[in-house]
């Protein structure tokens, strides 16, 4: 599974790859649930295309879910494809994974027919997603399955000391509960929403899929609401994600907000995301599945 803006320019690869790798660990269970859902709709695909493979979490998950399939991981970044190959080797599936570097907004190379096309958090980055749906319809074998995964919205990490049922999270100090961090996170997302349309980052692809000629369109939601350990992967994930938002958000913060933000993304300190006891990941994924006639 990929993270937002995971298929942009090469200079972003290092920070994006960190978020993608942490995302894959934190959301391992969710990715497993999604591939299980996909497996109920396509039994034994022999060839799978991963459109915008990122650092390879989706490619590996699909290889493990479909142990007889050959996988083709496509991305515009050579660095990301290096990571795909490394992830495949680490998972013991390198013999079934090949890679291709391509610009999805340009001319697509000959890919050969596939039985399953998977696009996770990648199509919203394209200049013309409608064109991509049409190309994918041509790449898929008759009866082949298209699967598109998108985030429902930006992840939230700071609950203000309360879980989703309103009870106080274990381990949360009074200082953490009322330090203003949750309010700052909400403000950051308001600032981001002013810069980028939700329809761009978190689109509803139902109409576009139908217009491309796909049939039997299904749509499912996977809700994520889980506590994160601050001194492990969870804290690093929250830190990396908020750090990536800094260039857009920080210039529009007040001085007091900037001071609090710096404490949150610091590696240490009582308010650091790496030390807090009130981290809880709240996000979700929407998945579409559709058939090529």
Features:
293 residues, alpha/beta, Rossmann fold, 8-stranded mixed sheet, 11 helices, 40% helix, disordered N terminus
Please give the share of residues in helix. 25-40%
Through-space gap between termini: 27 Å
The CATH architecture category of the largest domain equals 3-Layer(aba) Sandwich
Largest sheet data: 8 strands, mixed
**Can you count the helices?**
11
* Mean residue pLDDT: 89
Description:
The protein has 293 residues and is an alpha/beta fold. Helix content is 40%, strand content 22%. The protein has helices at residues 13-26, 28-39, 57-65, 78-91, 129-139, 174-177, 181-195, 198-201, 206-211, 233-249, 255-265; strands spanning 47-51, 70-75, 97-101, 114-120, 140-151, 156-158, 215-227, 279-291. Strands 1, 2, 3, 4, 5, 6, 7 and 8 form an eight-stranded mixed β-sheet that branches. Helix 5 links the parallel strand 4 and strand 5 (140-151). The chain is globular, with a radius of gyration of 20 Å. The model is unreliable at 1-11 and 160-176 (pLDDT under 50).
